[in-house]
Every structure is written in C-alpha cells, then in structure tokens.
Write a structure and sequence with these properties.
- It is built from eight helices and ten strands.
- The protein has a single domain, classed as Alpha-Beta Barrel (mRNA Triphosphatase Cet1, Chain A), CATH 3.20.100.
- It has an eight-stranded antiparallel beta barrel with strand order 1-6-5-4-3-7-8-10.
- The protein is globular, with a radius of gyration of 18 Å.
- Strand 5 (105-114) and strand 6 (117-126) form a beta hairpin.
- The protein has helices spanning 39-46, 54-57, 77-83, 130-134, 139-143, 148-164, 232-241, 250-256, and strands spanning 21-35, 50-52, 64-72, 88-97, 105-114, 117-126, 167-181, 188-199, 213-214, 219-226.
- Helices cover 24% and strands 36% of the residues.
Length: 263
C-alpha cells in the first residue's frame, strides 16, 4: 500500500485512578523548537508562575514517557493536511504512558485543529481493551455502563477508522517534563525531548523501545497551552527570549524519520 511507510517498519492519567474518563475540551497551543541548552533559562523564567504537574513531580528526573500510535489513511491524508498547512484538520491516536502493562490506562483521542486552536475528544480504556474496542467488539461491551459521552467518542473514533480505512502508521515516543499554572492549572507548559519513532507499528508495540529511531537529540519542543487568553507572564517570557512559534509536528517528523518524502 502506497501510504505505508517504507522501512530502510491536556491532563495525563494517574495510574492509581479509576480507569474511566472522557474529556472534551479546547485550548490554544503554541509550539517552539529550541536547543536543549535553553531549557534551564526557560525553567527559571517560568518558575514564579508554575509547578511541575503531579506526574512529573513524582519522577526522579521530572520527566515521564509519552507513547502514541497515530492512525492515517493509505495515502497519509492527515500527514499531508499538516504539511500543506490546512487550516482545519484532525488526527487520531492511541496514547499511553510509562508503564508496560495491560492494566495501564490508554486514551483514544481525536484531535482537531482550527488555526492555533486545538479541540480534543478522548476516552480512556484499559490498554488491554483498546485492540478489542477497535477491532470488532461493540462499544457497549467494552464500556459497560459508562456514560453516553464515552460511547460517543469511541464510536466516532471507530467511525473515522472505518470510513477512511485508517490504520496505525507510526509510534511516537518521547520524554515530557510538564508544568501547570499555580493559579490556573489549565495553563500548561511542557518540554518534550528524546523524540523517537517506529514505522508501521501494531497496537501491541506501543511500549517498543529497541526498534525506535531517534530523530530529535540536540533540540526539544516547548509547548504552551492555555484557554482563551495567554497569561501575561507567558507573553513576557516569549518577548524576553524572542521566541517564534512554529508549526512543529511530532507526527510528521516521525514519519519523515523513516521516509523523508512519502509519496
């Protein structure tokens, strides 16, 4: 299939929480692609207004691992929508964190972008139920008596897969250091580094490490997320460092790491 990649293959979950969650929200997202040497300067500048989120806080190095399998069409529709800067676009992914175990929580996420504004729908399942949920089991069998909104998100995810013949095309893995606002925990600042990928994964490879190809080493991705209006302190940091937001896509770069110019 021509879209298969040639091989030369919000709020994160607390593992102690009940594995049941649907979230629908939108926020503005700004991204900056920077040298790792800038991290300490940025940490110091934002320190008066943020603290590590609860998942970074418990880690010895303040970083946790994010693992996402992205879905796309045979001809990589979502990839090219991003590369062509289509103003309204979407992507689907399955995301989990840190632990390699079937009981780990996983999110089925539908992300939409309208300009710089991001909209996300997601439903949380035990990792062991993701494959059955996407490959035959009825939503009610997987979700039981969970709220209707959970089933709506799962059914929409499955509908997109069926109508567009979506399949897993790349696994993206990286370490994240995350901060939240002291006065408003909807404000989020994250440092993403050691970004690596695996082409053409299956869902059982979400914790794969040996075959990953690293494509970011000396740089990291700074993301700033907020609702409605950027906080004044964030704007000041951006001005002080003369930061210029750019449209950096881990998904697209992950694909390019395996096939520089997919056709």
């Amino acid at each position: 299939m021509k879209g298969r990649i040639g091989i030369a293959p919000g709020l994160e979950p607390d593992p102690s929480e009940k594995v049941s969650c649907t979230e629908n929200y939108h926020r503005y997202e700004l991204k900056y692609y920077l040298p790792k040497t800038d991290k300490e300067t940025i940490r110091n500048l934002i320190a008066p207004w943020v603290v590590h989120d609860r998942h970074s806080e418990i880690m010895s190095d303040k970083c946790y691992t994010v693992r996402s399998i992205y879905f796309d069409t045979d001809d990589l529709l979502y990839y090219f929508e991003k590369m062509d800067s289509v103003n309204v676009r979407k992507k689907l992914r399955v995301r989990t964190y840190n632990l390699s175990e079937n009981k780990a929580p996983a999110f089925l996420e539908i992300k939409r972008k309208v300009g710089r504004r991001g909209f996300k729908e997601r439903v949380m399942l035990p990792l062991e139920l993701v494959d059955p949920a996407l490959n035959g089991k009825h939503s009610s069998e997987v979700l039981g008596d969970r709220p209707f909104v959970d089933r709506k998100v799962l059914d929409r995810f499955k509908f997109n897969m069926k109508v567009k013949y979506l399949q897993p095309v790349v696994l993206v893995t990286y370490e994240r250091e995350a901060f939240i606002g002291i006065e408003n925990d909807r404000i989020r600042v994250t440092f993403d580094q050691n970004i690596r990928s695996l082409a053409n994964p299956n869902l059982n490879q979400v914790f794969e490490e040996q075959e990953l190809r690293q494509f970011e080493d000396e740089n990291f991705v700074l993301e700033m997320k907020f609702d409605n209006r950027m906080p004044r302190w964030m704007a000041q940091v951006i001005r002080m460092l003369n930061l210029r937001s750019e449209s950096y896509s881990k998904y697209c770069h992950a694909i390019d790491a395996w096939t520089p110019h997919p056709q």
